[in-house]
Amino acid sequence: MGYNIHLRFPENISTEPIVCNLTRKFDLDFNISKAQISSGREGYLILELLCSREQANQAKKYLEEQGIHVSDLAQSIIRDEKICIECGACTAICPTAALYMDKNRHLAFDVDKCVVCTRCIKLCPVNAIKADIGSVNE
């Protein structure tokens, strides 16, 4: 399973091999979604940890012990079909076409294609799309 987390590195450790050590120590895989790290400056990293919930909890604890601020990010997107007006606005911004209009012009959502970028949440005029944080600590 994947767990999306946001890491904020203090400037004094922004160039340390923390993520490399993390993968070795907890035997997990990861994807980097976004990063901005410069020597001597505060940095951030958005990671998808590909591991069990137990490994993710251990990894978060390790990162926090290293002085890194860790926050959970959305784990999945939920579309409330009861309040959705099927306007299709979200389809224009969805980078993976997880949200699309089917052949009958009804809004469809392919959960497997969704990368949880959350762009659709901000764009939905009736707030029918929400983020499921699905905290690692649940």
CATH superfamily of the largest domain: ACT domain
Which CATH architecture of the largest domain? 2-Layer Sandwich
By DSSP, the count of extended strands is 8
Largest sheet, if any? 4 strands, antiparallel
Mean pLDDT: 86
Determine Rg (CA atoms, Å): 17 Å
Multimer state: single chain
For the record, what CATH class of the largest domain applies?
Alpha Beta
- Within the CATH hierarchy, at the fold level, what is the topology of the largest domain? Alpha-Beta Plaits
Helix content: 10-25%
The low-confidence parts are: none
Helix/sheet category: alpha+beta
Task: Give the arrangement of secondary structure elements.
Elements: E1 2-9, H1 18-26, E2 29-36, E3 43-50, H2 53-65, E4 69-72, E5 76-79, H3 89-93, E6 99-101, E7 107-109, H4 119-123, E8 129-132
Protein name: 4Fe-4S binding protein
Keywords: 4Fe-4S, Electron transport, Iron, Iron-sulfur, Metal-binding, Repeat, Transport
Domain 4Fe-4S ferredoxin-type: 75-104, 105-134
Briefly characterize the structure:
This protein has 138 residues and is an alpha+beta fold.
